[in-house]
Design goal:
The chain contains 10 helices and 8 strands. By secondary structure, it is an alpha/beta fold. The N terminus is likely disordered.
């Protein structure tokens, strides 16, 4: 295999993902439902194992040693890359790729490989760049969401490449979401002041110097003064948030 690194160095910056990016059970239920009755499931860009179904045979592919080290001992991952999957054609019932496709070095090659090795549904979790501006973070760090949008393909682009019959599902984000991606804290802004929380969000690695410090300073001031709550305080009790999180399900 010829290694093809993605756009984020998880070996250097991937510590703490298993603790900060724990699967949310409500989102997990949607993922598992989309996988259908598959008995063998391929997980590409598997990371620490979030959203893998424990009641099925899972083949996990993960290039980062730091991420593989965070997996449970009984759920090891194979060293590999989305663009060159070490599997035969049509060898798994279903495949999943959870918040990873925006980091692949060659998206087209990776999606083609997913379809090559998968007999049934392919489930991709991704962010819809057209909806990034729904989150209040854009008022504090527009550079962050702009950088993320540059890394993100359109939902239709992905859908067309993973199945003849595809659908894009909105994923409601719970207020107490246990998965620490950016939108998970839509109603808990104080959590984003924690550097450990931000470290488990790759987006912060793609902004210019000083943007993160400005974000922390401005948000801290607005929380202390009550300005954030004047504008967005209703989110603290809003049970779910319809943001940019999507499941793209492609079927042959």
């Amino acid at each position: 295999m010829t290694p093809k690194g993605g756009d984020f160095d998880y070996d250097t910056h991937g510590g703490g993902y298993a603790q900060r990016r724990r699967p949310d059970p409500r989102i997990e239920a949607m993922v598992h439902a989309a996988l259908g009755d598959a008995k063998t499931v391929l997980n590409v860009g598997a990371g620490a194992g979030s959203y893998e179904p424990l009641d099925r045979r899972v083949i996990a592919i993960e290039p980062s040693a730091a991420m593989r080290a965070q997996r449970p001992p009984d759920r090891p991952a194979i060293i590999g890359f989305a663009e060159q999957l070490p599997l035969d054609d049509q060898s798994v019932d279903a495949a999943m790729a959870m918040y990873t496709v925006h980091q692949w070095a060659d998206l087209d090659a990776g999606l083609a490989e997913l379809r090559r090795v998968t007999r049934g549904p392919i489930v991709v979790m991704a962010g819809d760049a057209d909806a990034f501006d729904r989150l209040w973070v854009t008022d504090y760090a527009p550079e962050l969401l702009a950088a993320e949008a540059k890394r993100t393909a359109s939902m239709s682009y992905i859908a067309e490449r993973i199945g003849t019959h595809s659908e894009v599902l909105n994923v409601p984000i719970p207020l107490d979401c246990t998965d620490g991606f950016l939108e998970a804290f839509y109603g808990r802004p104080e959590r984003l002041l924690d550097p450990a929380v931000r470290k488990a969000q790759s987006s912060w690695g793609f902004i210019g110097e000083g943007v993160e410090a400005r974000f922390v300073e401005t948000l801290s001031k607005d929380l202390a003064s009550g300005r954030w709550d004047e504008r967005y305080g209703h989110l603290r009790t809003q049970r779910t948030f319809e943001g940019a999180l999507r499941l793209i399900v492609g079927r042959p």
